[in-house]
Amino acid sequence: MDQQPLPLEGITVVAVEQAVSAPFATRQLADLGARVVKVERIDGGDFARGYDTAARGLASHFVWCNRGKESIALDLKDPRGLDVVRRLVADADVFVQNLAHGAAARLGLDAAALCAAHPRLVAVDISGYGASGPYADKRAYDMLVQCEAGLVSVTGTPEQPVKAGIPAADIAAAMYAFSGVLAALVRRGTTGRGGPVEVSMLEALAEWMGHPLHHALHGGEPPARTGLAHAVIAPYDAYPTADGGRVLLSVQNDREWQRLAGQVMGRPDLAADPAFATNAARVAHRERTDALVAGALEALGSDEALARLEAAGIACARLRDVRGLAEHPQLAARDRWRRVGSPAGPLKALLPPLTLPGGEEARMGDVPALGQHTGALLRAVGMTDDEIAALRRDGVAA
Q1: Are 306 and 313 in contact, with CB atoms under 8 Å apart?
Q2: So what's the pLDDT on residue 224?
Q3: What pLDDT shows up at residue 41?
Q4: N or C: fewer beta carbons within 10 Å in the chain?
Q5: Is 170 a catalytic residue?
Q6: φ and ψ at 122, to 5 degrees?
Q7: Which of 46, 75, 93, 170 is catalytic?
Q8: 292-339: per-residue pLDDT in tens?
Q9: From the CB of residue 346, how many other CB atoms can be counted at a distance below 10 Å?
Q10: What's the mean per-residue pLDDT of the chain?
């Protein structure tokens, strides 16, 4: 049987984007076969290019979010640069932007204006707090939105709230923008019309706060910060082992507690002890419960502790750092690593988690240099070499 093509083959996306939320959304589209044209500033491009130099001289955020795209560098404050974007959009299926509030509207690149001019276009506005309301004009960066959305209040230890170690607000907005584009394209296939898609970082992350939010909304207390422990289940935490590692385990019911006590801890008497026999009792006596589990595991190496837990049918995991993830045996066994091209040479990257068996593998294209495709794209919209040279000479294109 012939392999099916990538589902977004033939779809063209134009993105005036920066940082993470829009670039990560459009990278998903590129991986699924869409052609993505990334419009960047001429003076340094997407500012995420300058965040760090960790990826062989390139910024790790940029490498992560921008593979498989074509880069055109334009000055959108110049009418000639803006005209190029309008020409690109005229032939596009999707437009995505995450400029500061009001900037896209001033340029005529907001979703409402573009969809009115191009009825088949799907146009996405990604913002920090939405187009209206008292926070509409407020600057929105990931950590700030994590705080406004309450994520920081439920993350960390009892003494110290902490932000998530990844840009959770950006990623949440990106994934809703991605799914919003897919939904709008499906609707366009039925109705023939595209339409605007609006996503705000605050509203995306507020949705992800669903469990603690509903817990607090409907009569409960907001979940306490418990580090790696679970607020309402015990034992469910990380425990040190003899070789300096840490092993996490989760007991979800009293049957599992009985197996943990008898087969791993060597204390079958704890299974019926009223202080530990039920989850409610174990949570009420959390310090004693954790001390008993820790005492059993601290005599074992990590490998042995995990083997015993697995044999007893107890859910468990190794506490890995980022290098441990990069060397994860499961990712290696499932052949999840690929290499993508970049201005710095080949770089390792993970296959996207969305797999479509029977179809072509995700298209993991190169990470573009700033303005790498400017000339080709300007010619594609009908400009002559002399016109292109004039734009470059005047600093409108790079």
Answers
A1: no
A2: 84
A3: 97
A4: N
A5: yes
A6: -100, 120
A7: 170
A8: 999 999 999 999 999 999 999 999 999 999 999 999 999 999 999 999
A9: 12
A10: 96
Q: How far is CA 204 from CA 27, 172, 397, in A?
A: 18, 5, 35
Within 10 angstroms of residue 3's Cβ, the number of other Cβ atoms is: 11
Check: CB of residue 382 under 8 Å from CB of residue 369.
Answer: no
Number of Cβ within 10 Å of residue 284's Cβ equals 13
Tell me whether strands 12-16 and 94-97 are parallel, antiparallel or unpaired: parallel
Coil/strand/helix, residue 126? strand
Output the pLDDT for position 1.
Answer: 62
Say if CB 367 and CB 347 are below 8 A apart. yes
DSSP string, 271-324: GT-TTTSSHHHHHHTHHHHHHHHHHHHTTS-HHHHHHHHHHTT-EEEE---HHH
Residue closest to 87 by CA, chosen among 392, 375, 378: 378
Point out the residues of the chain with pLDDT beneath 70.
1
Residue-level length of the chain:
398
Q: Which residues of 37-65 are buried (b: 16+ CB within 10 A; e: fewer)?
A: bbbbbbeebbebbeeeeebeebbebbbbb
Query: What six digits make up the tokens of 200?
Result: 């705000």
Q: Beginning with the edge strand found earlier in the chain, give each strand of the sheet holding 246-250 in spatial order.
A: 236-240, 246-250, 315-318
d(CA 43, CA 88): 21
Angle, alpha carbons 374-375-380 (nearest 5°): 100
Place of tokens 């470059």: 392
Phi, psi of 42 (to 5 degrees): -75, -25
Q: To 10 degrees, the CA torsion angle through 325, 328, 330, 334?
A: 90
Q: Are 336 and 364 in contact (CB under 8 A)?
A: no
Nearest to 297 by CA among 245, 347, 250: 245
Distances (CA, A) of 238 to 70, 293, 305: 44, 10, 12
Q: How far apart (Å, rounded) are the C-alpha atoms in residues 109 and 368?
A: 24
